Fold this sequence. Notes:
The chain is an all-alpha fold. The protein has 2 domains: 2-29 and 42-412, Ammonium transporter fold; 427-469, no CATH class. It is built from 18 helices and 2 strands. The protein has helices at residues 2-25, 30-33, 41-64, 73-103, 113-133, 139-163, 172-191, 195-202, 208-229, 236-263, 270-276, 279-283, 294-323, 331-352, 364-367, 374-402, 422-447, 459-469; strands at residues 26-28, 109-111. α3 (41-64) packs parallel to α5 (113-133). The longest helix is centred in the first third of the chain and has 31 residues, at 73-103. It is globular. The protein starts with a helix and ends with a helix.
Amino acid sequence: xxxxxxxxxxxxxxxxxxxxxxSSWMRYTTDLExxxxxxxxxxxxxxxxxxNDLMVVVVLGFGIIMLSxxxxxxxxxxxxxxxVSFCVPFSIILNVFxxxxxxxxxxxxxxxxxxxxxxxFATLTVMICFRALLGKVTPFLLFxxxxxxxxxxxxxxxxxxxxxxxxxxxxxxxxxxFAGCFSxxxxxxxxxxxxxxxxxxxxxVSDHISETITLLxxxxxxxxxxxxxxxxxxxxxxxxxxxxxxxxxxxxxxxxFLLSGFFNNGKFTIKDVRNGTIVGGIAIGSVAHLYLTPxxxxxxxGVASLISFFSMNMFCGWYEKRLNIKxxxxxxxxxxxxxxxxxxxxxxxxxxxxxxxSKYSDQFFKYFPQGNDQWKFQAxxxxxxxxxAIFGGGFCGLCIKLFNFPAPKExxxxxxxxxxxxxxxxxxxxxxxxxKRQNFNISARDNFNFKLKTPMxxxxxxxxxxxxxx
Length: 470
């Protein structure tokens, strides 16, 4: 209850500050203030479609994919709405602040849809971090971490875009790589010495229904990631982003199913399919708007899914045991690996590109602001992103440790922060009781050399198992 009151007070203070800054700093653009048609109406409609795709990715895609825990669904979806509603205006304020730093002037900022797209990308970094802290922290700490993360994210974007002038329209480096490194670092520092959270995690279970629901999140990401990758692209760059992203997604999906079936005796695992099929859409993000051939797009998606598969099934288990940290949603494989692959792809593509290439002709410096030296700046942006993410995540984690913020009394449980009806609680208790009964039956049969009965077996199969054992 104390944490909830602290959260309410914290939100009220922040909202007052943000409202004051927005009212004094920002106005709509002239086109939005005037009720008249213009030649850019079609472009505005297209921009709305772009931000709509991105909102589906942020709110639904990454929201539903986190619903694997049976007792934490309300918190997962509910906090996403709350955090998105806070992070978008907060990110707009920071975007305006860094813009004014770049021009060395303070003036009223005219906002349009492009700044909302940038703010949704910033919010996506928080959603990725939310996946690493899922069930481990209180709502108050979620807000505190989101403030730190958006600040360091906006600083990284300022350095990358205004100082280094790198290209990353799909935000694979600035969002996925940054958020992955930041969230893993925060989670490591916060949970490393907290045995209760790690123990509570090991008691969590997911059933067939919750795992199936998470695949719906994968489907939404698969469909809407191409549009999100092209949300900041212009003219034909938008269409190239769509095509290249789809080709990369197709490749990563095929490679994931092949690897999962090959290494699991012809069967597929939900973890592989849920994550590996969409890494192609993330890995292509930084270069999706460029002139790529279909085989290059498919190659990027295939390589990303290949590395992601082996890291998820081999490396992740190793560092979880060594560091006593649970990568709750396979962030290392789903965000860090494809984000890094995307950064490497941008280095290679910019190193190969030439101003004498007929595809770019007189638009070469539009795509590569630093000319033939662009690959050096892409490399600098890649490693700066990793460095500032680890530094920011470490700073945030140490602040949480220093002030000794309390952990949730019941990790991975909705009941601590949500009022549920008696019927809902009864259904959950009955479901938990049935799950325990099934686990007991399976354990008993295993001890007495019985063949295990799966949930899909019929009663006739059960009788057959008993007769075989006799």
